[in-house]
Amino acid sequence: xxxxxxxxxxxxxxxxxxxxxxxxxxxxxxxxxxxxxxxxxxxxxxxxxxxxxxxxxxxxxxxxxxxxxxxxxxxxxxxxxxxxxxxxxxxxxxxxxxxxxxxxxxxxxxxxxxxxxxxxxxxxxxxxxxxxxxxxxxxxxxxxxxxxxxxxxxxxxxxxxxxxxxxxxxxxxxxxxxxxxxxxxxxxxxxxxxxxxxxxxxxxxxxxxxxxxxxxxxxxxxxxxxxxxxxxxxxxxxxxxxxxxxxxxxxxxxxx
Length: 256
What we know:
Elements (H helix, E strand, L loop, with lengths): L1 E6 L3 E8 L2 E9 L6 H14 L9 E6 L2 H13 L6 E2 L20 H14 L3 E6 L2 E7 L5 E8 L1 H11 L19 H28 L4 E6 L2 H4 L8 E2 L3 H15 L1
Parallel strand pairs: 1-4, 4-5, 6-9, 9-10
Antiparallel strand pairs: 1-2, 2-3, 6-7, 7-8
Helix pairs in contact: 1-2, 3-7
């Protein structure tokens, strides 16, 4: 089985693939201070909950936007899983041109998301990522990564609102009942959820015009399920897009 690991600023996702099918997946909080041995104990326990062990892992692929943890998981793969991990770095065949001014600045999470979206839905395609930031990755009809727009994340901006405004409480995000809130909780839910849905729709329309075609739109990330029903442009939601992209990248480079 192939273990794919997507290390983000907020969460770390694990996905275990048997062929092209994901048989199990897990998510834990990102902790930059946790040691390799501590992460290894967590990972081995997660495998054990599914009746699996080290011997079942025959390959490892890692995408990381947290430099402090990149080497940590490379060490885990080598010491505990007895595998040399495929790290998304220089020298890896992406199968996609990165048409930005500084390709090395593009987050590996954005690249694997784009690869998976192109594979699943064709091109052109726009990937809306709901994570620490809200990202819009554009893939052209030729299948190349053309660039990205980055906006504040839902939780990031919401937390700033709660901290900066003493009279506004921290609220659990949920679907609003109306745009005009009749109490503080309804008002905040409306502004956050409908506000981000309109942000998404406006950005998608602009990016579609620049791509020159009716690009499909797929959303991913923890809050994609919350925003997608309120959006007029999001067509699909795939929470495990990055893990699927990592699998595709591993297979491409293993066969190269």
